[in-house]
Design a protein that fits this description.
Length: about 400
């Protein structure tokens, strides 16, 4: 019976093994058949270069109007500081008010200084009396010495006493002058006409020597202070034979200014002066233009937009849409004779009617991409259209 059970079990195992083998062989055959019937993959289509539109830079007669950003500055600023120590006795003006030149703004208690002045006056009188006595004594010693009744030593002593009395008088006069200055310094006057700052010392407040009492700004005229790059400065000076405006009869050029978030330039002034050195750290030179402010429309400290009217000049122009900006600066894309895109760094000027002035970096033979910029990549081929003259307006990319 045991032998029969073993035989039956072996028969089941053999049947399962045979079935598994058949399934495996079938799968292998199916895969083989499937692999043999799959079509070959289609090769990728060749990449078609993007289309771009080109334009040659053009030389045109163009208004030379460099743009700058600066700050408004008063023509005069004075810090009033105490020259003597004492208590503020009076304050003649409220903070923020206008004052005239010579107005007394503060008085400091002068009584201690007036007492010192009286002492110094008395010392001068005493020293003057001592000098007169020394003069009389010296004359007597001279007479007795000439008559052989006195000695040379007595004469020298009289002369020394007279010289000492003269020195004491000069010292007393110097102390008197210093005491008079202290009394004068108790009246703090304005050296210019202008407007006071708001926060001022109150009467009764103790002030020390050198302490700030007030700041006065004269804003009847306003400077616009701004920086000009050394390349722009050299270009402008080269056009003027390296002379500054106002030198050798050269006219001073007009400067227009706008402030705030506007886009216009309502204030008209003129170039006033420039620094005598270029800042080596920023490669710029600081200049100032001056503007009349009779209507008080301008306030010191404003951010100013500056347009310098330099006249007209031959300028190279490209559409402003062709000029791009990144951390390395301004640049354009040009297409070489093999229709490959190249990056070209440029120095730019102003924009007028959608056209950007190019100061350096391009020539009139370059082919600049003016449309299709978003599809162009440096060192990549493009399908470039025939170059056309720079249009006055261009369609958007």
């Amino acid at each position: 019976m045991l032998i029969g059970m073993i035989s039956g079990l072996c028969s089941v195992v053999c049947r399962r093994f045979a079935l598994s083998s058949l399934i495996t062989v079938g799968c292998v055959m199916t895969l083989a058949m499937s692999s043999g019937s799959r079509p070959a993959p289609t090769p990728p289509r060749p990449h078609k270069p993007p289309k771009v539109r080109l334009a040659h830079p053009e030389l045109r007669e163009n208004e030379d109007v460099p743009l700058f950003t600066g700050q408004t500055v008063p023509i005069e600023t004075v810090e009033l500081r105490a020259r003597v120590r004492g208590f503020v006795q009076t304050r003649a003006f409220e903070g923020g008010r206008r004052v005239n030149q010579g107005d007394v703004i503060f008085t400091i208690d002068a009584r201690p200084f007036e007492a010192v002045l009286r002492q110094a006056t008395a010392q001068v009188a005493s020293a003057d009396a001592q000098l007169r006595l020394a003069d009389v004594t010296l004359q007597q010693r001279k007479s007795t010495f000439e008559s052989k009744a006195g000695t040379k030593l007595e004469l020298d002593q009289a002369q020394a006493q007279r010289d000492d009395a003269q020195a004491q008088l000069e010292l007393a006069k110097a102390r008197l002058a210093a005491a008079q200055l202290d009394v004068d310094y108790t009246k703090v006057t304005s050296p210019i006409a202008g407007r006071l700052n708001v926060k001022l010392p109150e009467p009764g407040e103790l002030v020390d020597v050198g302490q700030m009492l007030a700041t006065i700004v004269n804003d009847s005229k306003i400077y616009a202070r701004y920086n000009v790059s050394e390349n722009t400065m050299l270009r402008l000076r080269g056009q003027a034979a390296n002379r500054r405006p106002g030198e050798d009869g050269r006219p001073v050029f007009v400067v227009q200014m706008g402030v705030g978030d506007g886009v216009d330039y309502p204030f008209t002034g003129e170039y006033y002066r420039g620094e005598n050195v270029v800042d080596a750290q920023t490669a710029t030179i600081q200049v100032e233009a001056i503007f009349d402010n009779a209507n008080n429309a301008l306030v010191p400290g404003l951010t100013a937009r500056i347009r310098s009217i330099m006249g007209t000049t031959k300028a190279m122009l490209v559409p402003d849409v062709a000029v791009m900006l990144d951390q390395a600066g301004r640049y354009v894309f040009v297409v070489n004779d093999k229709n490959v895109v190249e990056r070209r760094n440029v120095e730019v000027g102003t924009v007028a009617s959608g056209m950007r002035t190019i100061l350096s970096g391009l020539s009139t033979t370059d082919r600049v991409i003016v449309n299709g910029l978003q599809r162009a990549r440096p060192n990549a081929p493009v399908d470039a259209e025939i170059a056309v003259p720079v249009p006055s307006t261009l369609p958007a990319n």
